[in-house]
Amino acid sequence: MTGLFYVSAVVAVIACLAAVTRANAMHALLFLVTGLFAIALVFLALGAPFIAALEVIVYAGAIVVLFLFALMFLNFGPQAVGREMQQLGAHGWAAPAALSAVLLAALASAIVSSDPRFTAQAALTAVSPVSIEDVGASLFGGYAVAVELASLLLLVGLVGAMWIGRQRSGVLALSGTSAEPPARLAGPDSVPVPDNQREGETVT
Amino acid sequence: MPSVPLWTIVAAPLLGGLICAALASRAKSSRVDDGRALRAAISAVACCAVGGSLVAGVLASWPLFAVTFGAAPAQGPAALAAAVAGNQAAGLLSPQAAASVDRWVTGMPYVRETLYTWIDTGGIALDFSLWLDPLSVLMVLVITSVGLLIHLYAAAYMADERDLGRFFCYLNLFCAAMLLLVLGDGLMTLFVGWEGVGACSYLLIGFWYDKPANGAAARKAFIVTRIGDAAFLLAMLVLAWNFGTLRIAEILERVTVVWQPGHPIALAVAGLLLLAALGKSAQVPLQIWLPDAMAGPTPVSALLHAATMVTAGVYLIARCHTLFLFAPAVLAMTATLGTITAISAACSALGQRDIKRVLAYSTISQIGFMFTALGVGAFVAAMFHFFTHAFFKALLFLSAGSVTHSLDGETDITRMGGLARRLPMLTMLAGIGAAALAGVPLVTSGFYSKDQILWGAYQAPIGNASMWAVLVLTAAITALYSMRWYLLVFWGEGASERAADPDVDVGSGHSSALHRPSRWLLWTCVPLAVGALFAGFVQTPERLGGVHAFEQFIGPAFLSPGGLTLRARSDGEGSALAAEAEHALELRLMSVSSAAVVAGLLLGFWLYFLNPGIRRLLRASPILTRLRQVWAAGWFADEVADAMVGQTYTTMALLLRSDPADRAVLGGARGVGWAHRLVARTQTGRLQTYVAALLLGVLALLTVWLWSELLPLWPTGAGG
Amino acid sequence: MSASAAVPLEHVLLLGAALLAVGAFGALRRRNLLFVLVSIEVMLNGAAVAFVGAGARWQQPDGQIFVLFIMTMAAAEVAVGLALLLRIRAVTGSVDTSGLDRLRG
Asked: Quick check: C8 and A122 CB within 8 A?
């Protein structure tokens, strides 16, 4: 299982990296599914088959399908890929990459630092599986209230998404499919923005 | 003898004032002819109110007279029993009247009447109560009797005034406030009267408010005296803080127990009270309001100068005498300021040309005498002078009013003259007043009271020969300006006859348009003239009859609970020989002062009657001209006050016009706005910025955490 | 199952950190809201990996349970987020975040 972990980990990182950097949204989502499957395998390797299954069902299944539905509604044409390509051009990479790298370095140094709380025992005592029975027992035991709250959260999310996403006729829905970028809400209160404040944000 | 509650003394003029106020608007709005009956009713109500107050005052103070004079020889603790015994002998004075009188710790008789509990909160309880002791009796009787005469005079003098109801309302309230002032048992009650007097004086000085100058004079009087009022409030605060009470009698008792003479708090309190008295009594340096207060109707001036308002300061110091005895420095300052006021105001009176302004400065000067007496501890002399001064000053003002009245509003004394032949009775009355003011020896009351003050200034420990000399000089100047005033107004040629005289600026004669003052106006002055002549005989020097009725009556009011006194020099000897020597000295000093007065009178007579031409020669002298200008301007006190206070205020206002404090506040606001813009710049509205900020925060936390592992900046719970 | 004992905890945590960094990078780099949401999912998965690893290390079920809650939260978040995405697209005609700066200070 050790090998499974390392292979899956490498696949997960690469697939996720691809998912966040692809220009084509459909490709990106497929990479995301790949990454999620790899992460499910990682969970399996860490002795958490229940979570691994949920990862596949909920994440790779439900959530990604949700993304796909959204993509369908958005109806990105071929020019959308071109626009993304244009945005992902040569520049604009350095700052996010540097920040992420520093974050990773900080986390890694925290993980592998000389602190005995991490190294001394972590190196000796590796991970080992936790039984599904234990998970289920505490899920419906000590965490019962939290589970109820989670279900409530889901309900609220459902209702909220429904309310936000419904198609409304009126002032706000002014240009659903227009290729022209109105870019901001029209209205008497909208403040015209000087051009110099929007430099580098080409939205054509 | 029915016993009369004290509150009726105050309530009578108060009620009268309210009735007048109720009738005022109707009297004003009705036509002249229709309103005549109503105005007569108003006058009658006002006069009856003060008259009722006088009656109530006499009845209420009768027991005190009974105690004092019914038991004439008795002194000390046995006085009460002796008084009762003496009453039966006297027959007139009933025993039960005397029995209603209490005795203070010094043996002074008093009557106290608590009307209701005014304030009872926290550490302080104030009763609204009245207190009648010999000092209050003197004040009450003078205020009501002189006040009544002035009311009667005003009823005729102001008969043509359209707004008569308002006038008599103010006048009655003025009396009521002053009576409350002198009857107040506690400083707080006294203060109510004190403020009432101030407010009424404001209203009365500005009675003819449609002239801006009158309003200005009223405001000036109010504001200048307000300086003193503020000091009074502070003094009350200090006393309440220290003693937990504002009852004067209680404070004076406690003072003798708690403090030693010269105690700093005693000095502070006495100083503040002195400042209050200076403001109310128009003494240097707060004297500037009184000459301008002439803007009011003449009866108001008479009332203000003779009976109410300006004597309130004298009364305040006299009332708190023990407190002042514990502050010798303040007493010395009182005497010094009084002397300065006396001589400077006398000089100023010499330079005035307005008939009433001369009298105004003479009031300031005479009250300066009283302050000097208070300062040297001669409290009885001060009150005696107040007593006589009330008569002759009221007489002088009412005479001046009659003169102005008959001359159709003319007030310049250099344009008067020759009235003696036309108005002999008025001339005689004014002559009596002027003689009393000058202190003509032996025959006038002013002589006896002024002599008491001079004697006190000479022999009291605080006083000295130089102070005495200054006062004698002042007395001479007083005689001179009294003579000048009297002769210029009543004698000499009339203005029309002097038209050719280059001394006189304008030669428009008034002799043709002479309004004879009515009999009523003159006869109301007669009792005052009697008082001006004979009031002095209740207290005469040892070698001139040795009557001590006044001192016998009012003296106990000035005994201090601890037996403290300033009369150190007369202590100890008590032998007949020393007393004899003292009396001889008194007589010698009296001769000197009398000679000074007579000299002043003769000089005035020579300058203004016998040889008026000499004045033209004197006018050629630049020094005298300059002096006359200085005196006419009252030593430029107005200008000095303006420079010190007015200009300072203006300068400050100019400095503050740009609002430095406001600027600081606005600067702070601008800084906040600037900081706001700085902080708002971080809110770009762009998602990536927020994500980056979030990650940077995580990084910062991680960094801190990692460093704390390496450098134990604070003890970690895990023991790492 | 004993073979899994060979995976040390710090490697699991490093994987979680790497996924977090990848997701953060995506959230920082992309302007398309859809990709921002995808990046957030990646970050959440990084946290989930760390939870599972820690739970397995100390033999506690809590780690897995928290992953469950993360999934719940992610589902709700994606639902609301995608609904917002559709609304934004309907209103502005774009899913680009750079135009959505009306709340700037």
From this structure: yes
Q: What is the per-residue pLDDT for B95?
A: 46
Q: Which residue carries 């990454």 as its tokens?
A: A35
Q: What is the DSSP letter of A190?
A: P
Q: How is residue B409 written in tokens?
A: 């509003």
Contact flag C104-B688 (C-beta cutoff 8 Å): no
Task: State how far the Cα of B588 lies from the Cα of B576, in Å rounded to an integer.
Answer: 18
- Express the helix, strand and coil content of chain B in percent, nearest 5 each: 70, 5, 25
**A102 and chain B: CB distance < 8 Å anywhere?**
yes
Q: Is C93 in CB contact (< 8 Å) with chain B?
A: no
For residue B88, the model assigns a pLDDT of: 44
Among left, alpha and beta (phi > 0; psi -120 to 50; other), residue A77 is: beta
CA A80 to CA B653: how far, in whole Å? 71
Rounded Cα distance between B154 and B306, Å, is: 15
Contacts of B205 (CB under 8 A, 6+ apart): B214, B217, B218, B221, B293, B295, B296, B300, B304
Q: What Cα–Cα distance (Å) separates residue B335 from each residue in B347, B453, B460?
A: 18, 11, 11
Min Cα distance A195 → chain C (Å) is 12
Structure-token pair, residue B432: 């009596």
> Which B residues, 689 through 718, put their C-beta within 8 Å of a C-beta on chain C?
691-692, 695
Phi, psi angle pair for B122, to nearest 5°: 55, -135
Burial class (CB in 10 A: 0-12, 13-18, 19+), B57: buried
- Note the pLDDT of residue C6: 66
The model carries a pTM of 0.66
Mean pLDDT, residues B584-599 = 88
ipTM of the prediction: 0.90
CA distance B694 to chain C (A): 10
Tokens of B169: 């309302």
Rg (CA), chain C: 17
- A71: Cβ–Cβ under 8 A, 6 or more apart, which residues? A25, A26, A29, C34
pLDDT digits over B177-205, tens only?
999 999 999 899 999 999 999 999 999 99
Q: Do B706 and A99 touch (CB under 8 A)?
A: no
